[in-house]
Amino acid sequence: MLLLAFIAGGSITAWAEDITISAADIQNAAAQATTVSGITFEAAKNNGSNAPTYNTGGEDFRIYAKGTLTVSAERNITKMVYNISTQGKNVLPLLLLL
Fold first, then answer.
1. Burial classification of residue 40, based on how many CB atoms lie within 10 Å of its CB (0-12 exposed, 13-18 middle, 19 or more buried)
2. Are the beta carbons of 4 and 61 closer than 8 angstroms?
3. In the chain, which stretches have pLDDT less than 50?
4. Is 92 helix (H, G, I), strand (E, B) or coil?
């Protein structure tokens, strides 16, 4: 079971404004599109074996193999920074091979 991302939080620079969004803020994106501060997050399982999920214990948002996280906004997003959780860093070498 390869995890594509363990997102603990991050920041997005959009329309000359820094916005910090945590994994908890987007935890519902696993089930439906979720909008925070004008930015919409939508996760999908696609053809993968496991659906995206929010892990309350590790406080991270997980996207598994073949899954996607679509991020959109009405205005331009100029930069996105993801903070990878401790557990996600354990599989990071695998991510770099993809």
1. middle
2. no
3. 1-6, 98
4. helix
Structure confidence at residue 49 (pLDDT): 93
pLDDT at 18: 82
Q: What is the DSSP string of 60-81?
A: EEEEETT-EEEEEESS-EEEEE
Q: Which residue has the tokens 């995890």?
A: 3
- Which position has the token pair 């996600």? 88
pLDDT score recorded for residue 2: 36
**Torsion angle of the four alpha carbons 50, 25, 10, 92, in this order, in degrees rounded to the nearest 10:** -20
Interval 84-93: pLDDT, tens:
777 777 766 5
Instruction: Please say whether the dihedral angle defined by the alpha carbons of residues 27, 25, 94 and 80, taken in this order, is positive or negative.
Output: positive
Tallying the residues shown for the chain, one arrives at 98
What phi, psi does 94 have (nearest 5°)? -70, -35
